[in-house]
């Protein structure tokens, strides 16, 4: 080894820093350097110098990064925050970004803004609308590729049109692959995945992606070699999944999904006929157009005539020229066989679709028929039979089913709650009787309601009966009636009113659990019914609400405001009569104070008549007052209890007064 090829370098023992002299290796933190000279060959020396240069370069890079923290670097991508994102809007953050990515960035940003980074494929209407477009493009290929293959439709004038349509369909396919499919949320282990990158990765690994890519392969380039032939576009049919997806999604959002199912089944039928028409034309061409009686004659519209042939053969209508050659007979036989199998299955499918669409109607008819049969065989009076039929018809017409609860019971509790809350909670919250009640209690109540339809004139409850249910009017009206033959209407309750709660909320001691009035449906009345047992079960858990309800029922009426509260639970009442106002209304020294006297004086009908005469002018006849008392005071109550001091009975008196004296 020559002296010139030898160079002396010094290595600091711990950190292996390369130094050009021993003193360079001294530093404050290394007080006693143990540097020893290393003798290296010239080649090795060159290598080391190169390494040192590389280190210097690296140091420079780091220095640069200190000045510009977002300088591109393999180790670090710039932090994503708004400011940086804006500054580097069109810069690709990752080293693996391609030019295409870089160019597409502004477009993808815009698309993200419009569509969002992920799409819910089940409910997103925009996606379903897009799918309809893809379905049109797919159907264009599905129907026109065979027809263009079979019939001579590629004449020079038509080629530009076909070409344009092909391009449009292809663009739709490509947009679907780039924009929509890589954004579709999916479910993994019960979690919905929204992350764009994960979704993209999943799509790219799916068989759908493979089919989608195959469907857009530019096989049309073969036109250059073999001429303009639609057979080269046959790979476009690989997009069939989009059609079936569209079909499912549409069924999911349509209120009458069977309409789409019928259209789809008819479409299948027409497509098979269409294919057959194409085959017939090809067969005719093979035989020679117009050569025999069986083939297409070459006259008129080729497609129309061939389609006509297909309809007659495949649906086995017959009446066609007899095939003669072996080829013709074989073709015709194949047609008949296909016709039998395909059409029998399509007809079966159609029957299922129509059967499913009318299933509920069939169920209704069957229930009603069974009931009528039962009534006839048990000699039920005709009048009752008519009422039962009317009930069936009205219930079916008004709610589209006989028993709503049957449908709801199939659902999990959370769904039932959602539906019940959505339909009725707002109405419930407005009912005065429930004001101040716990919302959760109302929801519990909603879940236990049963819907029942009453026919005009039906008694919902009768005075003196034991009250086992309370009612909320869903639709229609009921009337609180009394007097001889129940001819007197004390009050009419409308949708949203509650009744039947008096006997339910009072204790059975002294007959408090008996109905205090007759209530009958005025027209058709659709009522929610709440069982006493259900109500009690609920109230056990809501003692506060129980107090509110009890208060709503028994609160003493003190002034106009409170009177409203007390009476409002019976629904809309007639306005305060002029006469009542003349007597000072319900305020101090007014009607109530006068009536309270009867607590002490009440001993017979004459006293009541006297008070009535005092209050109402012209006076009410004593016989009417007597009949009111008989119909209002629960039989179990001692006669000494004044009927006036109960706000509800008071309202009845006022109603009678209005109806008689106005
Ligand atoms: N007694 C009475 N009941 C009324 C009146 N208005 C509505 N109703 C309702 O008619 C229902 C009959 O049954 P309930 O006694 O259980 O509860 C009664 C009240 O809810 C009224 O003015 N007097």
Automatic annotation (TrEMBL):
SMART domains for the chain: cNMP
Catalytic activity annotation: K(+)(in) = K(+)(out); Na(+)(in) = Na(+)(out)
Residue stretches spanning the membrane: 127-147, 159-180, 262-283, 329-347
Keywords: cGMP, cGMP-binding, Ion channel, Ion transport, Ligand-gated ion channel, Membrane, Nucleotide-binding, Sensory transduction, Transmembrane, Transmembrane helix, Transport, Vision
Gene Ontology molecular function: cGMP binding; intracellularly cAMP-activated cation channel activity; intracellularly cGMP-activated cation channel activity; protein-containing complex binding
Membrane topology: Multi-pass membrane protein
Gene Ontology cellular-component terms listed: intracellular cyclic nucleotide activated cation channel complex; photoreceptor outer segment; plasma membrane
Primary location group: membrane
Residues annotated as domain Cyclic nucleotide-binding: 433-539
GO BP, sorted A to Z: visual perception
Subcellular location: Membrane
Protein name: Cyclic nucleotide gated channel subunit beta 3, tandem duplicate 2
Native source organism of the sequence: Cyprinus carpio carpio
